[in-house]
Amino acid sequence: MIFGLVTDSTASSIVAGAAKTVVDTARAVASQASDAASGNWIIEHVTDSHTLSFLPFGEIHLPVFPPINIGGISLDMSLTKHVVMLWLVAILVFIVMKAVSRSYKQSLIPGRFASAVEMVIIFIRDDVVVPAIGEKGKRYLPFFLTLFFFILFSNFFELIPYASTPSGDISVTAALAIIAFILVQGSGIKQNGVVGYFRGLVPSGIPIFAIPIIALVEIMGLFTKPFALCVRLFANLLAGDIAIYSFIGLIFVFGTVLVAPLAIGFALFIEILEVLVAFIQAYIFVTLTALFVGMAIHQEH
Amino acid sequence: MLVQLDPGVIIWTAFTFLLLLFVLGKTAWKPILKALDTREESIRQSIERAEEAKNEAEKLLEENRRELARAEERAQQVIKEARELAEKMRNESVSKASQEANKVLEKAREEIERDKQQAITQLHGVVAELAVKAAGKILDETMDETRQKKLVESFLNSLQKN
Questions:
Q1: Are B20 and A178 inside 8 Å of each other by CB?
Q2: Burial, A260: exposed, middle or buried (Cβ in 10 Å; 0-12, 13-18, 19+)?
Q3: Measured between CB atoms, which of A94, A105, A118 is closest to B20?
Q4: ipTM of this complex
Q5: What is the pTM assigned to this prediction?
Q6: Measuring CA to CA, which residue among B160, B124, B161, B130 is closest to residue B148?
Q7: What are phi and psi of B94, to 5 degrees?
Q8: How many CB atoms lie within 10 A of CB B64?
Q9: A78-127 pLDDT, tens per residue?
Q10: Do A94 and B23 count as a contact with CB atoms less than 8 A apart?
Q11: Residue A301 CA to its chain's centroid (Å)
Q12: Integer distance in angstroms from the first to the last C-alpha of chain B?
């Protein structure tokens, strides 16, 4: 009887303690941002910073390097949250792919895990790269596979607690878009020659007076394509991230745990949606890059 | 703040990505893609080989069937020939046997006839002699022997004609 009472009281004290923790966390969040409703904490969460926050366990302050000066431009190469996440993504992709390749070294018949990854690899090869570029596209396959898995894994970091998605950082997507841009131009120039490539931008059979306008539009198009790639990926991932945090944040805005089931339900819904988005956005980025490379290589209009 | 490009992060990203591309290209994509190609090639070859074997088998089957039909036909022919031969042989042997029998019969008949003739001739002599003797005894030397014999003979000849 006494024992029962003791366990009962222990259980209730644990519940009380848990509730207190939630309230404390809410207070901490509220005090950190001047007002929970302002949503500043969300912005803080999704933007890059020099600290890895493991609230309530503490924070890791990343080393800040002094800016490097190259030709009058100061370059801040210090590590940030997203750079660290990027490395984690890269390491994860490497481990996964290494495991897959090891499975192939043992036997040509893949294991369960390897065949799941293989399905994606074959999809990228036969349904994305080869239709867009042709048989020649197989040479670019390592690039597209790396791109796809890199973006996919980085998208999934959105859903991991304490992690933060590098794909939701416009600097990261911009870097990927710049690499895609360089590949598109490089492959086009390699195939058609410098002069041939830029001449091929303007379709033949166009009245002479229209050529300057078309040329201007086409050259602008060269830059808008990667720009769109960059913004699409960044905006989609950022939007998903913010939506999840917003639903969670409802609990703190209303200041009551009673909203939690609804808020967490919606957040869960968005998270599941984000799994889909992670695949779709990685697929779109790779497909469009492959299409642009194909268009640069096959310029016949 | 959200859409602020950070050159440091851009460079880090590009560096990380290119490093990953390099490392994976060397250690992962090459063996994986090669394994896929090898497997696909082997599957293609297996299918081709199976197709070939199927065609071969079909050809063999067709040939066997044709061979069988031919053998059947030949067997039928052989049977027919044998039957014809047997029929012919039977007919031949039957006709030969009957011929033989006829011949034997003929011979027997001829022999009988000859014997009969002989017997008749013999009988003629004996009868003539007996008749002459009897007549001689009866008439008692009214005629000489030669005249009587001629008389009897003409009589017998007339008998024979009747």
A1: no
A2: middle
A3: A94
A4: 0.80
A5: 0.70
A6: B130
A7: -65, -50
A8: 10
A9: 888 889 999 999 999 999 999 998 888 887 778 888 889 999 999 999 99
A10: yes
A11: 34
A12: 168
